[in-house]
Design brief:
Elements lengths: L6 H21 L10 H21 L8 H28 L2 H11 L1 H8 L6 H22 L3 H15 L9 H27 L1
Helix pairs in contact: 1-2, 1-8, 2-3, 2-8, 3-4, 3-6, 3-8, 6-7, 7-8
Length: about 200
C-alpha cells in the first residue's frame, strides 16, 4: 500500500469530521450569551483537520501533496482542541476570562515558535502542556462544576494524545481519531451542562 493513502485512516477521519460538525451544529443551538465561543474553535479545528485527513489519507493520487499543510493543521489541533475547551470551562465556572484565554494562548507557544524560529514543534513541551490541560479540564469539571462530561472529555483526550497502543492491525492514528470522537462528544455535552448551570 502506498504511503500516500490508507483507507482505514481516511474512514476514521470521516467519523471524526462528522462528530466535529455535529458538535458545531449542536453547540450553536445553546443560548450562549458571551462572545468567547472557545468550543467552536475546538470543534472547528477538529472538523477542519479531519476533512483534510479524509483527503490526505483517502486520495491515493493527490493526498500526499497536502502532507505539509496537513501536518501544520495537526499541530494546530494539538495546540487548540483541548486548551480551548479547558479555557471555556474556566470562563464559565469562574467567570475569569483572562485565565481562560491564557490557557489556549500558552498552549499555542510551541506552534508559534515553530513558525517564527523555523524549528520543529517541541513534542515534549506539547505533551507537558497537554498534561496540564488534562488536569485543569478534569479539575474544573469535577471540583467546580461536578461535570462528569468534562472529566470524560479530559480522559478521552488523554487517550488520544498519549495512547501508545500495542502492536495491532489498526494504526495508532486511527485509534487516536476514535478517542477524539469521544472527546468531541463529551466536550459538547460538558458545554451543555456548564451552559445550563450558568444560565
Amino acid at each position: 500500500m502506498s504511503s500516500h493513502h490508507r483507507y482505514s485512516t481516511a474512514t476514521s477521519y470521516v467519523l471524526l469530521a462528522g462528530t466535529g460538525i455535529y458538535c458545531i451544529v449542536k453547540y450553536t443551538k445553546y443560548d450562549v450569551t458571551d462572545n468567547l465561543d472557545l468550543p467552536l474553535i475546538t470543534f472547528g479545528v477538529i472538523a477542519f483537520h479531519s476533512l483534510l485527513g479524509v483527503w490526505r489519507w483517502g486520495n491515493p493520487d493527490y493526498g500526499g501533496k497536502i502532507s505539509k499543510f496537513f501536518d501544520i493543521t495537526s499541530h494546530v489541533r494539538n495546540a487548540l482542541a483541548l486548551s480551548c475547551m479547558t479555557g471555556n470551562m474556566i470562563i464559565k465556572a469562574r467567570q475569569d476570562k483572562f485565565f481562560g484565554i491564557t490557557i489556549p494562548v500558552v498552549s499555542s507557544i510551541p506552534l508559534v515558535m515553530s513558525f517564527t524560529e523555523g524549528c520543529a514543534v517541541n513534542e515534549d513541551f506539547v505533551d507537558l502542556l497537554t498534561a496540564i490541560n488534562v488536569i485543569f479540564c478534569g479539575w474544573f469539571s469535577y471540583l467546580d462544576n461536578e461535570n462528569m462530561w468534562g472529566i470524560a472529555a479530559a480522559i478521552s483526550y488523554m487517550f488520544a494524545r498519549f495512547g501508545r497502543y500495542a502492536e495491532r492491525d489498526i494504526p495508532d492514528e486511527d485509534l487516536s481519531n476514535f478517542a477524539l470522537c469521544f472527546f468531541s462528544y463529551f466536550a459538547y455535552r460538558a458545554c451543555g451542562e456548564i451552559t445550563a448551570k450558568v444560565l
